[in-house]
Design a protein that fits this description.
alpha/beta; 10-stranded mixed β-sheet; 16 helices; about 20% strand; binds N-(aminocarbonyl)-beta-alanine; binds zinc ion; Metal_Hydrolase
Length: about 525
């Protein structure tokens, strides 16, 4: 027996003991599914060299059978028959798909919201992501009392335990000169190129049209993308009161109080205001036909509008909210609500045909105890569902396995388009020489099954409980490290990198020309003779 093996046998129980002490000291619940941390040297090569052999390498533009060679976190070569030495870890991907790791454009890890905090932080949320084939996510920084720098600093701190790469969007919750100046700082110094405006959550995060107009103007001048949570917050507040006063206090009241028409209205309004400013717009969590059709109409007329459906909206319907068990029903509460059956299929079709462009999760988890804050009053149920671990599998099953889209389109909607929109392509979102080695190996013949018993989120429930399908992420490589293999996670707190995202993505190309053409077209001012009295 080698000295290294002997040491590992002696040290393993000690390391596991240390891990369990750390976990039980910092968590109030079991860490389901966690197997190991950075202690097993067999899973990856110490040289940082990996060869993925004979897989079908899929990019958004092309797929080909080839080998992928990785060194020090970067993809060095993509071509057939790469020969390597003994110091290289070899992964056989014959018959499997080798694809860019997923990028989730929409998450809320460690977010303070509705009087509590999301249960997944940057460690557990990212662990879940990696186990499900997502290697980067973009989280929403929430300002502190409207202060952007304070919000940013607090998220930098929260993200210290990251185990994979991440970026930040930032919410704008109030407007004054200081906010306007700070937006500049965020873009120019801090690598943020997108700002979210909540048109709902009255009395908390909600902004009005005047602020949205200021925000759109500012975003445009900075080359930053304006994002909207599109629901009419005033009408939602009215609807909530109306439904509650009818004596409907349970989770079903959530859906009844904020129907699709309120999402459609706000989406249309945001789109028209963006058109008025001539600024690109990104609509987050598109949940209804009503909102999707507004996006379709705007895109058809040439407006730069991006629509992001989320996994819950694509694969669930609202029936769970009527479950007679409160805990089961409450887990489905998110905003905008999961809609009646029919909306899900329409969103899938819109995604397949390019009306909607990329898929997020809005991963924003609360456990049953937190959801129970709203027992007897649906308005107090913390809004949010899981999805960061399930997205890649459910989208494969719903969109590829069903025959709705190609494998290359799968890569586009789960990874590449996000990298392009947020201006980090081809560093992310591609398997090309020089790209970051964020890669998954998906076996189309293996199957997955989702359950709160085995998932990696800290939540005790899962809105996709019991869902099964074909296509399983068997290997995840993050930053050139094998972090998920044979059902084992191998992650290191602090190993994730903050990815700065530069402004002026492709969505801004030509905007200046369109503005110049508009100005040139104005038949004003009119030179008039003086008025006669
Ligand atoms: O219910 C949701 N969506 N919770 C997260 C906050 C948001 O609106 O994105
Ligand atoms: Zn939202
Ligand atoms: Zn969200």
């Amino acid at each position: 027996m080698s000295m290294a093996s002997l040491l590992r046998i002696i040290l393993s129980p000690l390391i596991l003991l240390l891990i369990s002490i750390t976990i039980s000291a910092s968590e109030s619940h079991p860490m389901q599914g966690f197997c190991s941390v950075e202690c097993d040297t067999e899973l990856t090569s110490s040289s940082g060299k990996i060869l993925i052999k004979q897989g079908t390498v899929v990019n958004a533009h092309h797929k080909v059978v080839a080998d992928v060679y990785i060194e020090d976190g970067i993809i060095v070569s993509v071509r057939p028959n790469i020969a390597v030495g003994d110091d290289v870890k070899v992964i056989d991907a014959t018959g499997k798909y080798v694809m860019p790791g997923g990028i989730d454009p929409h998450t809320h890890l460690a977010m303070d919201f509705m009087g509590t905090g999301t249960i997944d932080d940057f460690y557990t949320g990212q662990a879940a992501a990696l186990a499900g084939g997502t290697t980067m996510h973009i989280d929403f920084v929430i300002p502190i009392n409207g202060n952007l720098s304070a919000g940013f600093a607090s998220y930098v701190d929260k993200a210290k335990k990251s185990v994979m790469d991440y970026g930040f969007h930032m919410a704008i919750t109030k407007w004054d000169e200081a906010v306007s100046k700070e937006m500049e700082l965020m873009v120019k110094e801090n690598g943020i190129n997108s700002f979210k405006f909540f048109m709902a959550y009255k009395g908390a995060l909600m902004i009005n049209d005047e602020l949205l107009l200021h925000g759109l103007e500012k975003c445009k001048s900075l080359g930053a993308l304006a994002m909207v949570h599109a629901e009419n917050g005033d009408a939602v507040a009215e609807g909530q009161k109306r439904i509650f006063d009818l004596g409907i206090t349970g989770p079903e009241g959530h859906a009844l109080s904020r129907p699709p028409v309120l999402e459609g209205e706000a989406t249309a309004r945001a789109i028209r205001l963006a058109s008025f400013i001539n600024a690109p717009l990104y609509v987050v969590h598109v949940m209804s036909i009503d909102a999707m059709e507004e996006i379709a109409k705007a895109r058809k007329s040439g407006q730069r509008v991006i629509g992001e459906p989320v996994v819950s909206g694509l694969t669930l319907d609202e029936s769970g909210l009527w479950d007679s068990d409160f805990t089961t029903a409450a887990k489905y509460v998110m905003s905008p609500p999961i809609r009646k059956t029919g909306h899900d299929k329409a969103l899938q079709d819109a995604l397949a045909t390019g009306i909607l462009q990329l898929v997020g999760t809005d991963h924003c988890t609360f456990n049953s105890t937190q959801k129970a804050f709203g027992y007897g009053d649906f308005r107090k149920i913390p809004n949010g569902v899981n999805g960061i671990e399930e997205r890649m599998h459910l989208i494969w099953e719903t969109m590829v396995e069903s025959g709705k889209i190609s494998v290359t389109d799968y890569v586009r909607i789960t990874s590449t388009e996000c990298a392009k929109i947020f201006n980090i392509y081809p560093r992310k979102g591609a398997i090309l020489e020089g790209s970051d080695a964020d890669i998954i190996v998906l076996n189309p013949n293996a199957s997955f099954r989702i359950s709160a018993i085995s998932h990696h989120s800290r939540s005790d429930t899962n809105v996709y409980e019991g869902k099964t399908g074909k296509g399983k992420v068997e290997v995840t490589i993050s930053g050139g490290r094998v972090v998920w293999e044979e059902g084992n996670l191998k992650i290191t707190s602090g190993s994730g990198k903050y990815i700065k995202m530069p402004p002026f993505s492709y969505l801004f190309d030509g905007i200046d020309k369109a503005d110049a053409a508009y100005l040139a077209s104005l038949r004003s001012p009119v030179h008039r003779t003086a008025a006669t009295y």
